[in-house]
Amino acid sequence: MRLPSEIKKVRxxxxxxxxxxxxxxxPFARFPWWLRLLSSLPxxxxxxxxxxxxxxxxxxxxxxxxxxxxxxxxxxxxxDEAWIRRTRSAFYxxxxxxxxxxxxxxxxxxxxIDRRIRFEDDGPARTALESGQSVMIVTSHNCNWEWTxxxxxxxxxxxxxxxxxxxxxRWGDRLMLTIRSRFGAEMITAKRLLxxxxxxxxxxxxxxxxxxxxxxxxxxxxxxxxxxxxxxxxFVGPEAIxxxxxxxxxxxxxxxxxxxxxxxxxxxxxxxxxxxxxGQMIERYAAEVERxxxxxxxxxLWNYRRWKVQRDAEGHPxxxxxxxxxxxx
Length: 329
Known about the structure:
The chain is α/β, with parallel strands linked by helices. It has helices at 4-24, 33-39, 43-60, 65-75, 81-104, 110-116, 123-130, 145-155, 170-181, 190-199, 237-245, 280-295, and strands at 117-120, 135-139, 160-164, 186-189, 207-211, 222-227, 230-235, 249-258, 261-270, 309-311, 317-319. Helix 3 runs antiparallel to helix 5 and helix 4 crosses helix 5 (81-104). It is globular.
């Protein structure tokens, strides 16, 4: 039986190993040659593969169908089974397109990105950055969130510090870091982002970017808001960062205009230094994500189990392995 001092030592060693492991996960100096070769195929060819992939996910593998249907039915209780099937199939098609678009991003140029994605209502964000004011950018898993970061890197031409959650596999994690940072974005683990923002708050104007609609399963502090008619837990980190830096906050609402072409609208969430009640910024963000999702349901990430964190009858949050419940009475 180990003594308390030995247990503490083992835990400290594990912590140091995890920290060192994260530091080693840096972008590749160069993409593997075979990936560059695959990515260089025309996007039309990739979309042909995406059509096949969507068919296989929908009719052969039935990839995470139970989770997709469960969440669609909970968020759209007024819709019938035929609508659920159509929306699920459309989701598979859009998800397959996004998957191949991420691979294609390996070889895309700045001009390719600018040609396929356009900004809308970005004037206030540009004005803030040009005046020396850093801004916070929050977005969600609607349409192609990976291309969103690349467009930010090319479109506003300001330094970007973007939060990311390390993937479990080292190779895949380094690959995604390379794709996301290829136009200059600095990728920072979400847990270290606040410290980094405060350290350089007197530096040049920059963008702090986060995708913040994931389930906060590992966070000890959550805020619950109504989202898609359900009691939903959100990270409090984005609000804490915006409040501590007195940053204006913009939500990037991405809309699919056609296959491989998108529009990104800048939606103001909070003004610089605006005094908001705790959770108010999160509620505004949740409302905007819901608005975009209801406008085009197939474009949200339905195969990700979003409602893993729930509250019991006494209001205590807990992580559940399966199932979906509505807000407690």
